[in-house]
Structure formats: C-alpha cells, structure tokens
Amino acid sequence: MAGLISNLIDTLKGQTDLFKEVAALLVLKKEHIIENDIDALKNVVKQENEIVPKALKNDKEREKIMADIATVLNKKQEELTLSLLAELINGQPEHNDFVVAVDEFVAALEKMKEANDAAKVLVQDALEFVDFNMNIIHSSLDAAPAGYGSLEDGHEPGSFLDTRS
Questions:
Q1: pTM higher than 0.90 for the full model?
Q2: CA 19 to CA 85: how far, in whole Å?
Q3: How many angstroms separate the Cα of 52 from the Cα of each of 114, 140, 146, 156?
Q4: Residue range 88-126, pLDDT digits in tens
C-alpha cells in the first residue's frame, strides 16, 4: 500500500504543477482579453490546449491509483476520497507527505478555478458588449436613412440626390 500512496503523491504533485500552469495561463488570458490582444490570446489558448492531454492522462492515472487503493482497503471507489484516505493512513510514514500533496493540489485547483471564473466574466462581458453593439447597428439599419421619404406620406421614396423633386 505504501507504494500506491507514493504513486498517488507523485500523481497529485504532477496535477498540481499542471493546475499551476493553467492558472498562470488564465491570468495571461485575462490580461490579453483586457488588452484586446488577439494574437497573444491565441498563443495562450494554444498553450492551454497542449496542457489538456497531459492533465487528462494524469487524472486517469490518479483515478486508477485510487481504484487500486480502494481495492486494497476493501472500499468502494466512489466512497474513497482524498480526505478519507488521509484519515485512513494517519500514523503511516507517508501521511504527512500525502496531506501536503493534497493541500497543494486543492489550493492549485481553487486558484485555477478563481482565475477561470475571472476570465469567464470578462468573456461574458465582452460578448454582451458585442451583442449590445450589434443591436445598435441592427436597429440603425431598421430606421429609414436620412433623406429618404416614405410611402406613408404620399411621396415616393427617393434620395436627397434625386433631382425629380
């Protein structure tokens, strides 16, 4: 079991590093959105897309290790959380390293979530602004342009350049 816990600690540390990278990229993304720097934003998105496969692989590895630990402990995998595992291994030599790894993992996850939420708000605001501008443009196109008459007042539509009047 000590080997499984050690592997889980390594996996959590790997995920923590990836979460920290993503959080840093989300901060950059936020700055680029504010600055309206599309090229830099594309670069950040490209970097994020390179991290995603690594994070997915790491997450699957963590789930596999947790499933193996659940089997050893004769627990259902769905019931075994990192917190419960920390309680179960209390007093074991790996306990302190495990708790530190879990705490760093959770902190990095929270930081990434906060950065993601901030970027999400900026993107939503930008989309609302674009929608507002599109509505203004659309409503101005619906109005009759200056210099044109209407059929309702008995005059034929024409341009102010129309020499027939």
A1: no
A2: 22
A3: 18, 44, 54, 62
A4: 999 899 999 999 999 999 999 999 888 888 878 887 887
